[in-house]
Amino acid sequence: MNGNSLLSIKNVSFSFGKTPVVSDFSLEVQKGSFTTLLGPSGCGKTTLLRLVSGFIEPDSGSILINGIDQHGIEVDKREIGMVFQDYALFPHFTVEKNLLYGLNLKFPGKENAAKNMAKIHKTARILGIAGLLDRYPHQLSGGQQQRVALGRALVLEPKLLLMDEPLSSLDAKLRLQVREELKEIQSTIGITTLYVTHDQEEALSLSDSIAVINHGKLLQSGAPKDIYYHPRSEFVADFVGRANFINRTSLRGDTANVPDRIVVRPEWFALSSDKSLCITGAVLSAAFLGQITRYRVRLDDGSGNVVVADIPGRALADDYKTGDKITLKIERFISL
């Protein structure tokens, strides 16, 4: 186990019956970090959270928290806080009672009442919900409910916070707002967080480290920028950010040192007369999106392949119209 790791998952496998769900999975989660498990639906992300939390036990491998093997340790003894996709708030309890529920179970009795109340008020202030303590869940917005669910986990002062797609039920605008708040709260408190999402933008913006998963296997882990700029497979390149896969036979210009297949992010194209390395094709659509114009271009090499190019600055959408011939210079590419 790495000396700075809070959570260590070592060669963990798990199957439902004869169906493998997690296969020989290993990951180190650093203390105080925000680590995201990123992958498509059904790839094993939630199962991994259930394994870490103790709701299910691995078929093989080990899970260590602070160097202690968690095998056989009950869920409520693992010092883990959990925030679920549906928040799981008690509808008949006020916010205050929702926050107190876990504390009163862990620290019961009149002798702990004042201390428990002080903890929830401190947490409520940090999360910006101090004015909502007398309200019921149905009286709260989606973002407020999310903060209450987070607060209920944090008042127990867990070593590790697990979050399973907590923003998925929010609309796009609120999801962006709560996402920014969530990262600020996590950074302020400094709690080690293991977060599950299928949303690559969410993962890129929130995470210190991302673990990309598919079919229960870890494909790549590292800092968001490392994964974005240096993906190790086509799946990772395509799942983390937009990716255009282009064969060398489709390229024009100097292709002497170009591999058979490359990845080009949409923002790595430019409108330029410099044809040192470029593609040519016909514009299918041009959408002006403010800072960029997004072109969809069908290559003219006979393959029928379509690429997406995000051109910044003064390249307005009406510069090229549907059917126009266009040349796009490739300023950067990834070799896989």
Describe the structure.
With 336 residues, this protein is of the alpha+beta class. It folds into two domains: 5-239, Rossmann fold (3-Layer(aba) Sandwich), CATH 3.40.50; 244-335, Beta Barrel (OB fold (Dihydrolipoamide Acetyltransferase, E2P)). 26% of the residues lie in helices and 33% in strands. It contains eight helices and 19 strands. It has helices at 45-53, 95-106, 110-127, 142-154, 172-189, 200-206, 224-229, 234-239, and strands spanning 5-16, 19-30, 34-38, 60-65, 68-69, 80-83, 160-164, 192-197, 209-214, 217-222, 244-247, 252-253, 261-264, 269-271, 277-288, 292-299, 306-312, 325-330, 334-335. The radius of gyration is 24 Å and the shape is elongated. The two termini are 30 Å apart.
Strand order of the largest sheet: 6-7-8-3-9-10
> What low-confidence regions span 5 or more consecutive residues with pLDDT below 50?
none
* CATH architectural grouping of the largest domain: 3-Layer(aba) Sandwich
- Percentage of residues assigned to helices: 25-40%
Shape: elongated
Tally of strands: 19
* Rg measurement, Å: 24 Å
Strand content: 25-35%
Let me know the average pLDDT. Answer: 92
CATH fourth-tier homologous superfamily of the largest domain: P-loop containing nucleotide triphosphate hydrolases
- What CATH calls the topology of the largest domain is Rossmann fold
Task: Give the class from helix and strand content and strand pairing.
Answer: alpha+beta
Number of helices: 8
* Domain unit count: 2
Order of helices and strands: EEEHEEEHHHEHEHEEHHEEEEEEEEE
Query: Distance between the terminal alpha carbons, to the nearest Å?
Result: 30 Å
Largest sheet: 6 strands, mixed
CATH class of the largest domain: Alpha Beta
